[in-house]
Amino acid sequence: MRAEERTELPSQSTLHTKGLGIAALGGLVLTIDIPLIRLADGTIWSILLLRSGTTFAAALVIWGFLGLSGRRLLPMLPGRMGILVAISYGLSGIAFMGAVFATTTANLVFILAFNPMFAALLSWLFLKERPKTVTILAMVLMVIGVLIIVGDGLRSGQLIGDVLALLSALLIAVAITLSRVSGEDMGFAAIISNILPFFLAVPMVWINGFAVAEPGWILANGILIYPLAFFCLALAPRFISGAEVAMFYLLETVLTPIWIWMIFTEVPTRQSLIGGALLICTLIAHSLWQLSSGARERYRTRHHTV
After folding, report:
1. 203 in a domain, yes or no?
2. Rounded to whole angstroms, how far apart are CA atoms 213 and 219?
3. In this predicted model, what pLDDT tens digit does every residue of 99-142 receive, in sequence order?
4. I want to staple 198 with a disulfide (CB 3.0 to 4.6 A). Which of 52, 116, 189, 232 is the partner?
C-alpha cells in the first residue's frame, strides 16, 4: 500500500506543477487583451460583438478540429454546472468591456486584482473553507486598496467603470469556484460563454451601427489571445486551487498598465497608484505565503506517507 502511495505522490505533484504552468500561460497571454481592445479603436458594442463573435467561432473550430482528429471530445458545457460557469464568464465579459470604456486601464486591472480575495471569500461562504488569519488580513488590506481607487473614480466621474470592474472580478471568482466544485474540465465553457455578450451586442450594433477603426487587432484578440487565455485559466482549477488560479490574474494587474503606458502614454492618477500598490504588494505577499505553505504541506505529506 505504501509503495502505491509513493508512486501516486509524484503524480499529484506533477499535476500541480502542470496546473501552475497552464494558469501562468493564461495569465500572461491575458495581459495583451486590453491593449488590443484599445488599439482597435471602436465603440463598446462593436468591439464586444467582434471579439465575442470571433472567440465563439474559434471555440467551435477548435472543438470540431479535435473531433476530426479522432481525439476524445470534451463536453462544451459539462452539465448544469458547466452552464452556470459559462453564464458567469459571459456576464463577467460584459461587465469587463463596460469597464474598459468607463474607467482607466490602471483602475480596471487594479480592481480586477481583487479576484483572488473574492475566490477565497466564496470558498469560505459556500465550501466552508475558512481562510487563515493571513488571508483575512490580506482581504482587509485589499478592500482598503479598492476603496482608495473607487474613491478616486468617484471624484473623477469614473465610478460606474470601477463598479463594473469590481463586478467582473466577482463573476470571474464565481466561475472559478464553480469550476473547482465540479472538478470538470471547463476550458470550453469559458470560451463558449462569449455567445452571451455576442447576442447582447447584436441588437445594439444593429441600432447604433458598426464602428471599429482597426478591426485586425480585435480579430487577433478574439481568434487567438482571448480564447487561449481563458481556456488555460478555466482549465487550471482542475489541477490547482481556485485561489492559486486567481493569483495568476495578478500578471494582468502588473503588466497591462505597463503596455498601456508604452503604447498610449496613459499615466495612472496618484490615488490609483496608491490603491494599486497596496493591492499588488498585498497580493504578492499573500501569494508567496500561500505557495510556501502549500509546498510545506506537500513535503510533510510525502514524508509522512513514506
Report:
1. yes
2. 12
3. 999 988 888 888 887 777 788 888 888 777 777 788 778 878 87
4. 52
